[in-house]
Amino acid sequence: MAHRETAPDGGATGVAVSVREGLFTDTDPPRLLGSRCQACGRHHFPRHDTCPYCTAEGALPVELSGTGVLWSWTTVTIAPPGYGGDVPYGFGVVELPEGLRVVTRLTETDPSRLSAGQRMAMVVVPVRVDDDGHRVVTYAFAPQDPR
Amino acid sequence: MAHRETAPDGGATGVAVSVREGLFTDTDPPRLLGSRCQACGRHHFPRHDTCPYCTAEGALPVELSGTGVLWSWTTVTIAPPGYGGDVPYGFGVVELPEGLRVVTRLTETDPSRLSAGQRMAMVVVPVRVDDDGHRVVTYAFAPQDPR
Amino acid sequence: MTDVDIAGVGIHPFGRFADRTITDMGVTAVRGALAEAGLVRGGFQAAFCATAYGGVASGHKVLSRIGMTGMPIVDVEAGCASGGAALMLGAGAIRAGAYDTVLVFGVEKMPKGMIRSSFFEPWQEESGLGATPAYFALRAQRLMQDSGVTKDHLASVVVKNRRHGVHNPDAMFRSEVDATAVLASRLVCEPLHLWMLCTPNEGAAAVVLTSAGAGAGAGSAAGGSVGGDRPARVRLGAAVLRSHLPGSVLNESTPMSGLADESVPAPSTLAATAAYEEAGIGPEDLDVVECQDTDAARELLSYEELGLCPPGAAAALCEEGATALGGRIPVNPSGGLLSKGEPLGASALGQVVTLVHQLRGDAGHNQVEGARVALAHTVGRGANASVVVLTR
Amino acid sequence: MTDVDIAGVGIHPFGRFADRTITDMGVTAVRGALAEAGLVRGGFQAAFCATAYGGVASGHKVLSRIGMTGMPIVDVEAGCASGGAALMLGAGAIRAGAYDTVLVFGVEKMPKGMIRSSFFEPWQEESGLGATPAYFALRAQRLMQDSGVTKDHLASVVVKNRRHGVHNPDAMFRSEVDATAVLASRLVCEPLHLWMLCTPNEGAAAVVLTSAGAGAGAGSAAGGSVGGDRPARVRLGAAVLRSHLPGSVLNESTPMSGLADESVPAPSTLAATAAYEEAGIGPEDLDVVECQDTDAARELLSYEELGLCPPGAAAALCEEGATALGGRIPVNPSGGLLSKGEPLGASALGQVVTLVHQLRGDAGHNQVEGARVALAHTVGRGANASVVVLTR
Ligand SMILES: [Zn+2]
Ligand SMILES: [Zn+2]
After folding, report:
1. Which tens digits make up the pLDDT trace of C39-54?
2. Distance in angstroms (rounded) separating the CA atoms of residues A101 and A105
């Protein structure tokens, strides 16, 4: 997947490359790519053919809701292994209307500006520039109405 | 252990450093440093306080015989992981008069010039030069009367 | 079905030992346990070695060094619960009558700094989602929402465990700390400060399991025991391992998503429920507990998951002082991982070593008077949770 | 004591699969075995995952992907014999009555090139003593001295196994080779040429074990089976793991020294002796064998260690053609590791998959007619040797 940068905090220059194919759309606004189980109706992310809850195969590919509410959050202050981007960055779990909780980066790095139940919207953010000069991007959630 | 180079095939310049403390003496000729079990009388190499054959503790440190006979041999043609020296090099097992068989480098790299029961003598050989310019040395066995 | 006793325990201190190999540490722990059990070569018929990062044939290296090989030797990995898994396998084989006596040990020499877990995929790492302490922080944050836990409660767990650790000669950190200092230590991931997180480190622990029917020299049939004054045996009431059920986004299997459903039981609860049943006891029977305090919030969550208090009551149990030495259910008298550090393969067995001393009544300054029933709990990557019940 | 049956087997081909993760491969093998056994979720009560290099919680990742977690999941490592060790543990737990049905699987994605074993210490590597194939060559050299084996015999083992492998769809190499080409392949360590050495690679294999008493849907008590036409079960006669005894300088534990004493039994001999006793058979009863052909000489040595021929008679057995398909005791009808490659954690279970098909009579072109008793053998780092006996 190579698409134009859509992150609200990044300049829209250069080619953006996703950290992994198939995680999210390159639409505006972007959407996470999940699956819905045909047997039990529950959702999961990232996509897999098999439902992790009931083991049924043939889960349907779906685009997940672009907005949800904050369920848990923190801030990462030290770069973890294998990460080449900036610190600090926000980190949390957002609950989507599908009844799905997703682990995600957060654009807000100050935990005191976040609270349980706050509305969040999915965005795409850059994490680093690769050897070819492309911006490597991943998914994150941003507060929809920052306080 | 830092001692003067004693390998017959190396020029005696610079400080030589053993790949590991306590493997062999820096005498001329050098000797392997093994242990003899006080309970069962059998030898082992490298040194450990515990006899690997009968589990008794308090094995006595001894210098092993400097000569023995060839029991098995081959030639390493590709540098194995973690090895920074030259290839090919000889590789074999020498049986010492103590009833001990020792895995060792061989100075002879042509397997057709070696045969079972051939007399071998222990030597010290360089494997590489370290960052400080010291020659890193290890033990090997050389044919005592090359054919 | 045969009952299983612990005939001997041994430990190599937990800490950092630049001049000691993983094999050296394992030998120290194994020798200690064999000596207590009075065993020489031939005295055990199988060995299980718990390790997460030790590499191929870690168990063999230890037993080769002391010339005690020939039997089956299996390396076992179940994350932080590796030692609990090894204990379960060893006890199971004795109960089945396959062996009289089994050696179970754990060894680890953790890399320094934040552990690069082989658990995360490259895209997760690249996205910054491979941040292990951040997952602990997300769990802590939820505990604050759900159970009324505050940062002061988190600090008080650290203060308690570090106070306990002062008297544990095998702990890495043996100084008291106060709550102010804990909260002043560097913020790693809100709400977790550096001193609220345990340190990965090095160490080894060993346990000799034997069938309860066998004599003091359980291995004597194979010519494997020596005489002498042996410490009292401790009964292994249960050794249970469980993995996670799908659904919880914050369980230790670190899924990228989960359900908005609080009813999925945690792996620790699954293991504890099975262990209580197997041992024929309930949480109300426990005299002393060692639990997984990877971080301070993890200990509080364990109170709820193990049934030491009802769901949502961890903060209250903490405030009551019940889990400190002198309280009604002391937790982590060893000082916990917050004092000892965490050598993955050795940590669960280190808990067992501590609790065996508690049940023998020779735990010294930190003795829980009259302790008769003890529980050891670990949980981590996998997810894996193990619960061990010991009685005398 | 309960007998143990194999109710289903599954395999992911052995080879190189750049676009497949170790988890993907494990899922393929596990699904295959569960389908044969007719099991759905809840159908097995424990899982053992054999892997040497898979990393923390390899088994959990596979079972998480298909939503089948909650039970104990233990990763098991015993070098090349990891799969044999896992099978031993699973079978032991069923025999003990702890479980009705156990899933045993192995996964591996070996690094390319010469494996940097965590087995060697830095000074050994720096000295050039960490050269794994050189140890194989030293052993081959001794076999040439002791058993009259020549390089032609070594080449003939490769020719035989590669010929067998042509008909194995799960093998990495599926073309015949002739002796001239084998001897013309690059000399790695005299007397071993490149084609005489097996290739570390990737793959997965899975086996469902169930108590012999249980019905076709062994896990049905837990709601875990579905109906349908199931393949015939195969009886697990023995699954034995043994480690080396001290003394032999060329055993797979790779000591730096050993005794001038030929009387120390090899770990493979220890395991085979115990397995024959456990299964109540002798080597003369075997119809088909899969053995460890890490290198061509290793297969010949295994003939002697497993008792397929007397000590010193490997060359004669080889010349007789007895171990080729059509001979009196075919060895490695799958093509062996020389055709399949060796994904450490999966290889021992891959042998079992092959032999289960042989005993069911559905091995196709390579079927050994009327095969009723089969043996699988692995040996490697540790040292660990496993011997599995299967019967119908
Ligand atoms: Zn479903
Ligand atoms: Zn001795």
Report:
1. 998 999 999 999 999 9
2. 13
Rounded CA Rg of chain A: 16
> D329 with D320: CB under 8 angstroms?
no
C70 to chain B: which residues are within 8 Å by CB? none
Structure tokens belonging to residue B16: 């030589």
CATH class of this structure's domain A2-31+66-143: mainly beta
Give the pLDDT confidence of D167-179 residue by residue, as tens digits.
999 999 999 999 9
B touches A, CB cut-off 8 Å, minimum 3 pairs: no
Residues in C touching D64 (Cβ below 8 Å):
244, 246, 253, 255
Spatial contact of B8 and B142, defined as CB atoms under 8 Å apart: yes
Determine the distance in angstroms separating the CA of D68 from the nearest CA of chain A, rounded to an integer.
7
ipTM of this predicted complex? 0.92
Distance between CA atoms of residues B118 and D118, nearest Å = 33
Q: What pTM was computed for the model?
A: 0.94
Cβ-Cβ contacts under 8 Å, D123 against chain B = 19-20, 23, 138
The beta strand positions in chain B, using DSSP E, are 2-4, 15-18, 33-36, 43-44, 60-63, 67-76, 89-96, 100-106, 119-129, 135-143
Q: What is the pLDDT of residue D115?
A: 61
Distance CA A130, CA D18 (A): 22
Structure tokens that stand for D13 in this block: 């081909």
Q: Which are the contacts of C78, defined by CB distance < 8 A and separation ≥ 6?
A: C50, C84, C85, C241, C382, C384, C386, D57, D73, D74, D75
Report domain extents, chain B.
2-31+66-143
In order of their start, the domains of chain D are: 4-112+201-234 (3.40.47.10), 128-193+236-391 (3.40.47.10)
Subunit contact A92:C139, Cβ cutoff 8 A: no
D335 Cβ partners below 8 Å, 6+ apart? D161, D162, D164, D165, D166, D168, D171, D173, D174
| Mutation target vs A (from C115, C117, C120, C126; most A CBs, 10 A cutoff) | C126
Question: What is the Cα–Cα distance from D27 to D8, expressed in whole angstroms?
Answer: 15
- In the reported structure, the alpha carbon of residue A62 is separated from the centroid of ligand 1 by a whole-number distance in angstroms of 14
Give the residue from A147, A87, A95 showing the smallest Cα distance to A122: A95
Q: Do B75 and D256 lie within an 8 Å CB cutoff?
A: no
Contact C77 D77 (CB under 8 A): yes
Alpha carbon dihedral A17, A22, A27, A28, in 10-degree steps, equals -80
DSSP H/E element including C348 = helix C344-360
D80 tagged catalytic: yes
pLDDT of D119: 75
**pLDDT, tens digit, for every residue of C282-340?**
999 999 999 999 999 999 999 999 999 999 999 999 999 999 999 999 999 999 999 99
DSSP for D171-227, please give it.
-S--S---HHHHHHSPEEETTEEGGGBPPB-EEEEEEEEEETTS-SSGGGGGT-B--
The CB density around residue C109, as the number of other CB atoms within 10 Å, is 26
